[in-house]
Amino acid sequence: MPSSFSPNKYSRKCDVYSFGVVLMEILTGRMAGEEGEMSLVEWVNLAVKKECGTWEVFDFELSSDKEMEEEMWALFQVGLLCVAAQPKDRPTMNMVRNMIEDIRKKGVREDGTVSILDDISFGTSSPSQSTS
């Protein structure tokens, strides 16, 4: 462990922030940023202030599917909550999970097409928790 590691410095809210960054990377197709560049979170916040549209914000490959646009914006909103500047303003991971599950459930359409999140399993058991 680095000598500068402090158990009080990191928290679950840091994990939520990191999850939000990863979600933004997936949705925008941009990297979190390198030294000297505008951070992804700054870029996203600027895009929100400018009221940019789908084509300016989302990864080209994702934005080409108009049927999924509503879900992408909903996930984008979840990501924004996760990267709130103040840790106290960020949701818990359980809240994030519930929001994503709600987005997934709403993603099944009348015409039979499914959510972009349909392949994600939100079951409570994981391979490490399963019993034989």
Textual characterization of the structure:
By secondary structure, the chain is mainly alpha-helical. It is globular. The protein is built from six helices and no strands. Helices cover 48% and strands 0% of the residues. It starts with 11 loop residues before the first helix and ends in a 26-residue tail after the last helix. The protein has helices at 12-28, 40-49, 54-57, 60-63, 69-82, 93-106. The model is unreliable at 1-6 and 119-132 (pLDDT under 50). Helix 1 packs antiparallel against helix 5 and helix 5 (69-82) runs antiparallel to helix 6 (93-106). The longest helix is centred in the first third of the chain and has 17 residues, at 12-28.
Contiguous helical run count: 6
- pLDDT averaged over residues: 76
Report the biggest beta sheet as strand number plus sense, adding barrel if it closes. Answer: none
Low-confidence stretches: 1-6, 119-132
* Record field, number of beta strands: 0
The multimeric state of the shown protein is single chain
Strand content: under 5%
Rg computed from alpha carbons, rounded to a whole number of angstroms: 17 Å
| Overall geometric form | globular
Q: Decide which structural class fits the backbone.
A: mainly alpha
How far the N terminus sits from the C terminus, by CA atoms, comes to 36 Å
Helicity range: 40-55%
What is the H-and-E element order?
A: HHHHHH
Q: What is the compact description of this entry?
A:
The protein has 132 residues and is mainly alpha-helical. The protein is built from 6 helices and no strands.
